[in-house]
Amino acid sequence: MDAQRIKESGLRDATQLTNGKVRVVIDDKGGMIPELSLRRENGYLNTHWLPYFRGNSGEPYNEGKHKPFWAGSLLYDIAGNFPCLPSFGLPSKVYGALVEQHGTTANGLWKHEKHGVLEGRGAYSVSSLPGVVKGLSYRKYDIV
Prior knowledge:
The strands form 3 sheets. The chain has a 5-stranded antiparallel beta sheet, with no helix packed on it. Strands 8-9-10 form a 3-stranded antiparallel beta sheet, with no helix packed on it. The chain is mainly beta and about 140 residues long. The chain has helices spanning about 65, 75, 105; strands at about 1-5, 15-20, 20-25, 35-40, 45, 90-95, 95-100, 110-120, 120-130, 135-144. The longest helix has 5 residues, at about 75.
């Protein structure tokens, strides 16, 4: 078992968790999970979606430079699966606050709080994100 901070493809800050059978990578940006892999012989087989259009230049989304191809930062960083709160779909108002497409959680920069291994039990990561809707904030636990 192992839990460590890494720079994943596109040089995104991420946490990698492994337990010998499964490896998962959780990006700070959007809480994206571009990798959920199963151990196969001498490597891993990723079961998650990595779109061909994902921005992997290593630079953050820049609207002036990137908008002609990527309609927004979500498409630039999208991969695998990710949390969509407090809404899903098109931009909308939630309790009077404007929420981006697929919610604050899919677009925000999650703050990595801690990661580690509980011997014999698993590897974990904890991260948090303030919400744009008054009174909402998010805490995420990723565990293998």
